[in-house]
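quick one before i forget lol
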Amino acid sequence: MADRYWVGGSGNWNSTNTGNWSATSGGSSGASAPVSGDDVFFDASSDSGASFTVTITTTAPTIRNLTISGLDQAMILAGTPGWTIQGSISLPASNFTWSATGTVTLGGSSSSRTILTNGVTINGGLTFDSSGSDWTLQSALTLGSNDNMTLTAGTLDLAGYAVSCQLFVISGSTTRTLTMGSSTVSCTGTGNAWNATTSTNLTLNCDTSNIILTRNTNSKTFMGGSLTYYNVSQGGSGPLTIGGSNTFNDVLNPYKTTGSTAISFTAGTTQTVSNFSASGESGRVLTLLSTSGGSAWTVSKSSGTVTVDYVSLEDSTATGGATWNATNSADAGGNTGWSFVAAGYTMTAGLGSFTLTGQDVALKHNRVLVAAYASVSLTGQDVGLQYGRLMSAGL
């Protein structure tokens, strides 16, 4: 094991270039290029008085720890090859850009490794692949818009920090543990944006996390692997499919404040929930349906009352002991266990004027105020009917 410090400003990082490596900070160049087990440093003595670019070239390096700190000139890390870091990553909050597009494999066999990005976006993606090893985030982690977060072996603790990536993939059947804490994981990609299809030897500690799938226009899929999650959210206009018979604290649709969208559930699956808050808003309906028309999906809650609003429901079986209500909603067919309940209607009077809200409210020719479904509410003060006018509730 050795320490290697970058010196001399811009240059290529490969196995043969010794002109940019020193054994000490700011020392003489000529040290060998770092190899497996070596710690690599970039600091205020790495430049030559100007901004500089370090380009990883065709020979992909393998190192232990990567520490970039104290830069007094702007540094760009560039290059396309994939490379391997066997230890921790620490990046500075300023003067640094990660433009390298090669995937970084987090390998090796050491434990208690950390990842501190300080707001730097890592391009190229990260693959965590080391049995018996562990990593813990020390700051929010943002990957490039086309880059994936992959866990194939080892333990990854998000420690409650926000994560943004194109796809979050938990693959293989090697022992893996993902601890999420209170993290919000934003998956921006299309296709299997969250993919835990193979759950063999996987321990998922969902804690109080939220997985939000934000893709607009294109469809995206949450492949849950029939595991237990906290919250999953539809965060974009692109239709969301939820696959697997999963357990959720809640299923939500924060996109409802922006527009209409859809969530489909794989036919024949059951989603067991503590809450089901997926709703739309007036003019922005949420469609809830099966991936196969005429073949039901099931949502189950053991007790209490669930109410969804402004949805179009199709091929849904609601069960488990709870009461399932849909207000301001459309029954598109094939539903079981749902009560489609009309919303209430409100008449507000103030200073001689009436405001009517709701549906199917009209003043007929004989001056009778009729409210459908027998629900008329009066709010405010000084409400009166003069000159023999009659108010009644119809139906």
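fyi Residues 125 and 147 are 5 Å apart (CA to CA).
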